Inverse folding.
């Protein structure tokens, strides 16, 4: 009888100690997980990582560490955790296969936030569309078109395609093609073109405006004109110069063949 009571007493004491150790493991482990979460947030904020990614990664670190703490605490209580870990692994694999598209977008979103090929406010072309970046999210990027349409593009499509960041550089080159008649004096035409461009203060003096004969077409002599402007002045200069050239050609008696089958004014898909 005494041996039986002693065995029960030893079992209770051992179970109590194991329970106490499990509680200590859980409390200390939870504190350590929270500490690692806050430390990772501070380090990422110091490195100027995108706030959305900072919060997500920090929470992911906390949940992962807390899961290990719970498994360790259960193991201290004598619970067989091997099968438990196997179940978690199998569930993670099943979820990963089911959400592989979303995970691909998530991974692409992390890369976009970390390497920053573009930022909010940039005008970009990618994934067969173009627009101003309104927001970079974990799974998608939101673009706004010049006519104010919202386009939501999966990040995996952006990261797997060419990215043209039109706003990345402070200056841009504006390309024009002007066609005149064969009877017009080439030197006079070049002089008139240079005068029109020199009158616009938005056009940079360095590098200088380039003017050259591009082609001797069927019905016109085509001039290529290339000028550098600030990125924000691109479209203003483009439209204004086209209008001014038409008026100046008319005033100077320079003919513009019609129809100009071989002449086009570049209207590329840029904003």
């Amino acid at each position: 009888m005494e041996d039986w009571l002693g065995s029960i007493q030893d079992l209770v004491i051992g179970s109590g100690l194991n329970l106490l150790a499990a509680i200590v493991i859980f409390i200390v482990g939870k504190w350590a997980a929270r500490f690692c979460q806050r430390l990772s947030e501070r380090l990422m904020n110091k490195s100027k990582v995108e706030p959305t990614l900072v919060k997500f990664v920090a929470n992911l670190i906390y949940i992962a560490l807390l899961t290990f703490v719970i498994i360790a605490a259960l193991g201290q209580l004598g619970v067989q955790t091997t099968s438990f870990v196997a179940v978690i692994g199998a569930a993670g694999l099943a979820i990963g296969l089911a959400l592989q598209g979303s995970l691909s977008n998530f991974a692409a979103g992390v890369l976009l936030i970390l390497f920053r090929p573009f930022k909010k406010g940039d005008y970009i072309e990618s994934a067969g569309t173009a627009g101003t970046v309104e927001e970079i999210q974990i799974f998608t990027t939101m673009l706004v078109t010049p006519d104010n349409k919202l386009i939501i593009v999966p990040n995996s499509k952006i990261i797997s395609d060419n990215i043209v960041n039109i706003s990345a550089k402070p200056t841009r080159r504006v390309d024009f093609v002007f066609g005149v008649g064969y009877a017009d004096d080439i030197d006079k035409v070049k002089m008139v073109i240079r005068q029109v461009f020199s009158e616009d203060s938005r056009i940079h003096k360095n590098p200088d405006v380039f003017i050259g004969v591009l082609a001797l077409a069927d019905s016109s002599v085509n001039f290529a004109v290339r000028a550098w402007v600030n990125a924000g002045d691109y479209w203003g200069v483009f439209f204004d110069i086209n209008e001014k050239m038409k008026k100046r050609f008319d005033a100077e008696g320079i003919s513009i063949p019609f129809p100009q089958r071989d002449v086009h004014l570049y209207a590329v898909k840029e904003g």
Summary: The chain is about 50% helix and 20% strand.
